[in-house]
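Example 339.
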Amino acid sequence: MKPIKRIAVIVSGGDAPGINSVLFGMISKNNDIEIYGFNGGYDGILNSEPIYFKDINLRQANVSGNSILQTSRSAAPRTKEGRAKIIKRLKSLGIDTLIVCGGDGSLKAAELLTEEGMPCLGIPLTIDNDIYGTEFTIGYNTAVKRVVDVLYNLHQTAHNMPGRIFMVEVFGGKSGHIALAGALAGGADIVIIPEMTRRPEDIASRIKEILKSKNDYVIIVCSESVYDTRDYIPGDQGISMEIGKKIEELIGMRVRHSVLGYFQRGGDPDPADSLLALQMGSFAIESIKNGKSGYMVGWNHHRCVLVPLSKVVSNRKELDNNLLKIALEKEMIIGNEIM
Ligand SMILES: Nc1ncnc2c1ncn2[C@@H]1O[C@H](COP(=O)(O)OP(=O)(O)OP(=O)(O)O)[C@@H](O)[C@H]1O
Ligand SMILES: O=P(O)(O)OC[C@H]1O[C@](O)(CO)[C@@H](O)[C@@H]1O
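Predicted structure in complex with adenosine-5'-triphosphate:
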């Protein structure tokens, strides 16, 4: 087997806390391998010069959410011609393997590049946690913590001025992982997620029930993508306002809103994400040394594993069953699973 000398790393799609820790994990195993990075995702391969990582003090950067490598959404990998340009550029620099840190779209591109002649390895990095083959994605735990921090504060103002209804809209793309975990950990009363149906009438009657029995307040967590009349477009915000309006009409009470938005994606990583990222970065290098490509590094049963990229991109990740069961038992979800 030909010894691997040069690896390039990119971050692609939405950023997530923990990028620097992935790099830190890679460098500590650097031995006989040169590691380069490109700023700006797939576009960066075409438009920028590689950065050699040995020159950078990663120890300090490890704890920061201000990433050494910037990310982007780019058009190039979506066409065969674009991918051919990316492969040509990487080969001209003598790169043996490309490591792609990103979400499902980025990993799809990595799968296609591998098929077309550029060996790639994927690392699941997205706050949404919506990637098949891994229990957690890098950035997810930090994003859930952001939601929970807000809910803790909300409980206090809600307690101080009782009798009110609060609605918090959270990120998560087309999945409800952040909303479900955030709502449970943050003690919300109701959670609205894209995987389950939600009739405003049912939500309204549950709100009335809670206000009557507890006599204090109601906190609702709503996923950003729960549109019924059209498809969700990444970055869309405001569906909670629409649902809130319907609830107001049904109950005759005001719904008070907070749309969390990008605040959930920025900031320093929590230790859980730093440690996950460090291990995935280190494992990726180890795997490349063992001649692996065409895989994603996943996290299952407390350890890193390799999952074929083809499997990752052709399957949908289910919600955590235990969390879903608890939310249903507590009547935080009023609806049925969407098939
Ligand atoms: N079907 C596809 N084929 C080829 N390349 C793709 C495809 N989908 C996405 N990509 C590439 O991956 C990049 C990132 O994809 P996308 O914007 O969907 O984010 P992501 O990686 O899914 O992360 P996140 O959902 O967390 O933002 C795109 O800008 C594009 O370059
Ligand atoms: O930064 P953009 O392109 O507006 O995308 C926002 C989307 O990206 C994500 O943060 C995932 O990276 C989603 O949670 C969110 O809907």
